[in-house]
Design brief:
alpha+beta, two-stranded antiparallel ribbon, globular
């Protein structure tokens, strides 16, 4: 029995040593990247808590809590050209309150992950305030479990050079305002915007 107890006490330590040996060491660049993501998240929490234009200040019934995230992971940072469609289809996207929104399926980006080539649409639209925008909206295999059931967004800034290589960072995936308050309506990603893998990066479910 004494031997067995010593073995039991030893096993967690052995597992920790094996994990440390098998976990790849982060490069200085990766550490700096993770620190920058964590800093940006802390700043966003401050903005959400205090800025008059944040959803929590616009809807006083919405109680602020620090936003929840997957750990920052450099493996979810990809690069791609923007493959602009020659014919840009205007599609109707529904909002969470049932309203119709007309946007343009402008193009798509492509990347490799989990042994497969994947692509996701880039949408072009104009907000109610008249501001032009480009955005990625998506769902994945974490949607409705670890992440918000409607889907998540990534902001996209279009570059005039058609050969420009973009950085697509899923650590920047965020919840729309309707995740925090029913006062807001947000675009619902279509079935074509589903990524058939787990995107364990970016913001998690708030509630």
């Amino acid at each position: 029995m004494i031997v067995h107890r010593r073995l039991i006490r030893f096993l967690p330590l052995a597992a920790a040593v094996m994990l440390a040996c098998c976990t790849p060491e982060l490069t200085p660049e990766q550490r700096a990247y993770i620190a920058s993501v964590e800093k940006a998240r802390a700043e966003k929490d401050e903005w959400m808590r205090n800025d008059p234009s944040s959803p929590f200040r616009q809807d006083t019934a919405a109680r602020f809590e620090p936003l929840k995230y997957f750990p920052a992971d450099p493996a979810f940072v990809f690069t791609s050209r923007l493959y602009e469609h020659a014919v840009k289809e205007t599609v109707v996207i529904l909002g969470t309150k049932g309203e119709e929104r007309r946007v343009e399926r402008f193009g798509h980006v492509v990347w490799n992950h989990a042994g497969a080539e994947r692509r996701i649409a880039v949408y072009h639209g104009v907000s109610r305030a008249g501001a032009e925008y480009y955005s990625i909206w998506f769902t994945d295999r974490t949607t409705g479990r670890e992440t918000y059931g409607v889907g998540r967004y990534i902001d996209f800034t279009r570059h005039p050079d058609p050969e420009h290589v973009y950085t697509v960072d899923f650590n920047e995936a965020y919840n729309p305002y309707c995740a925090y308050s029913s006062r807001f309506s947000c675009a619902v990603p279509t079935k074509e915007d589903f990524i058939d893998t787990e995107i364990t990066a970016g913001e998690k479910t708030f509630h």
